Amino acid sequence: MSTQALGGVLSEEQKKQFDEEGYLIVKGLLADDAQIIMDEFMRLHAAGPIPGCFQPMTAEEADGDILKQYPRMMHPHKVNEIAFRYMLHPKVMNILADLFGADPLAAQSMFYFKPPGAKGQALHQDQFYLKVEPGTCIAAWTAIDPADEENGGLFLVPQTNRIDIECPHTADPAVSFTKEEVDVPEGREAIPARMDAGDVLFFNGSVIHGSYPNSSADRFRRAFICHYSDAATTKIGKYYKPLYRHDGTAVTVEANEDAGPCGTEFQQTGAH
User: Rounded to 5 degrees, what angle do the CA atoms 90, 84, 58 make?
Assistant: First the structure.
């Protein structure tokens, strides 16, 4: 990969949008790559379990819960070259350098299949789990299918990048596959992030976000999601190591063993 300085790709307006609202959608950033990513992860799903990454159930075992047949893949970059490559894609890393104001470090990858009928994920904040110090994390959420309200697209609460990390309460298991949920602050509202395949949504680690069930008849809502910190990082939650520079070299930082604001941050629930 190139050794030249990262960044210098976003306009001042785009950076202002991210700084003020906490998020930025870059249309078509990976439009030429969405099909490649989809094909690889559907191949991985067809191939079956991957220890420590992916454990799908049969239809009989799932007992009507389609999400158990299509669970998310956690840290696929640790077992798959294509996932690793797209986690460090130069287009993504250059934008992150502009948003952080420093070179980014990749901390996590995930892939969500979210087939028709799948539950959503209750509203949450990523920094609650990643526990980056100093600063916070940024997510890069790549739509592999078009994503909207019908098929369980992401919702986010603008300007919650300015709030503290909230302590969650128990989520409704009828609509969320994760157990923890935070409330929308008074005076704010969650808005849909409508996206086309290949669009990438970047958002600050304090931004409240989540999704609702996929109520469509026949539309998946696949997404490739990665989380990043920056070169100033000295600590991160123990599930998110090692970190990786844009050239693929690993960086070891201290595991964040602090309990955090709520004492439950080491439950590996991931995000989105």
Answer: 135
**Best CA proximity match to 26, nearest among 111, 92, 82:** 92
Rounded Cα distance, 108 and 116, in Å = 26
**Integer Cα distance of 27 and 34 in angstroms:** 12
C-alpha 250/C-alpha 261 separation (Å) is 29
* Cα 145 to Cα 77: distance, rounded to the nearest angstrom: 20
Domains and CATH numbers, the chain: 17-255 (2.60.120.620)
Does a cis peptide bond (omega within 30 degrees of 0) precede residue 115? no
Residue 102: pLDDT over 80: yes
Q: What is the mean pLDDT of residues 192-201?
A: 98
CA 242 – CA 19 distance, rounded (Å): 27
**Token pair for 207:** 């931004």
Does residue 110 contact residue 270 with C-beta atoms inside 8 Å? yes
pLDDT attached to residue 257: 84
pLDDT of residue 267: 56
The full 3-state SS of 120-150, as one line of letters, equals EEEEECCHHHHCCECCCCEEEEEECCCECCC
C-alpha 122/C-alpha 175 separation (Å) is: 8
What are 134's two structure tokens? 């100093």
Helix (H) or strand (E) holding 44: helix 34-47
